[in-house]
Amino acid sequence: MAQDARTRSVRYAFISILALLAMLVGFTGDKILPITVDEDPVVKTATTPAPTKTSKPEAQPTKDPLAGDPAPALLEAGDLKEVRGVIGDQKAQANTLIKRWFAANGTGKADDGFVSWAAAQLPAEPSTVQRQTEQATVKQLTSSRDAAGNRAARWLNDHGCQDVWMSFTSEQLSLRSTTDDEPTETEIKTVLKLASEVASAGQDRSGSPAASQPKPCSGATKPARDDCSCSYPSTQSTMSAAARTYLGKLSPYRNDQYAWMEQQVDLAALYAGLELPSDVGSGALLGNLVGKYVLVTRGHAKP
């Protein structure tokens, strides 16, 4: 009996202790008896992945060289036919000539040698009779000049050699698709510089010394020849064709806009009586060569 009594006492004591512990847990939560759960080490150590960069090109700051002198309404679209054909006629010949350069010289940079070679591709100057015919065409064009046309031609002759092409480059850098090849300010400056040098070297060969030429896009009208205030080839036509070729390859869906601006620049030279169609055509030929040369030697195109 005594043994049973002791057993019951121990049992009651044990139950009392358990009850007391249960009460304590109820008041204190898991501070006394923490509950642990096995954790998946992979989940426990995982970190939130950093957001990946989007492939969309970031907007770049641009500096528009025309901001201080916005364009007026430019020349009539119908008059562009006076230069459109002259410009277009040069492309096939330029393609043939530039292939000869790359075949003989490879695709590396050789800017000085290229300038001399390109100037040597200048066609023979037109005969006096042909130039007189061209002068009649230009005279007819200039006879229809009005105040609006004069404003447009003046603006184009001031900015058409360089500023409009630098502005287009800035636009390409700001608004381009992920698949566009990218122009650079350095390269477009190289394009324009080489074009100017080729035009000057060509003028030396044709007997129009560069020193006697009006500065490109200066609006000056100092005669380089007895029969007109013009030069063979036209510097601004050479520079415009080079820039159009370069930028149009890198952003082909804008090529129509670039071709339109090239025609505007070339027509302005005729409209102002600064050039003849043959000056424009020869400049377009040399400018095509420059643009294609830069595209290939700077890795944007194959020869």
Task: Write a structural description.
The structure is a single chain. The chain is an all-alpha fold and 303 residues long. It has helices spanning 2-28, 41-45, 81-88, 91-105, 111-120, 128-142, 147-159, 163-174, 185-206, 235-250, 255-271, 277-297. Helix 5 (111-120) crosses helix 9, helix 7 (147-159) packs across helix 11 (255-271) and helix 9 (185-206) packs antiparallel against helix 10 (235-250). It is built from twelve helices and no strands. The longest helix has 27 residues, at 2-28. 60% of the residues lie in helices and 0% in strands. It has two domains: 2-33; 77-297, Phosphatidic acid phosphatase type 2/haloperoxidase (Vanadium-containing Chloroperoxidase, domain 1), CATH 1.20.144.10.
Q: What's the shape?
A: globular
The H/E string reads HHHHHHHHHHHH
Helix-strand category:
mainly alpha
> What Rg do the Cα atoms give?
38 Å
Indicate the CATH topology of the largest domain: Vanadium-containing Chloroperoxidase, domain 1
**Proportion of residues in helical segments:** 55-70%
The residue-averaged pLDDT reads 81
Strand content: under 5%
Please summarize the sheet with the most strands.
none
Number of helices: 12
CATH homologous superfamily (4th level) name of the largest domain: Phosphatidic acid phosphatase type 2/haloperoxidase
CATH architecture of the largest domain: Up-down Bundle
Please state the oligomeric state of the protein chains shown. single chain
CATH class of the largest domain: Mainly Alpha
> Low-confidence spans: pLDDT under 50, at least 5 residues?
27-49, 219-224
Query: How many domain regions?
Result: 2
Number of strands: 0
End-to-end separation in angstroms reads 115 Å
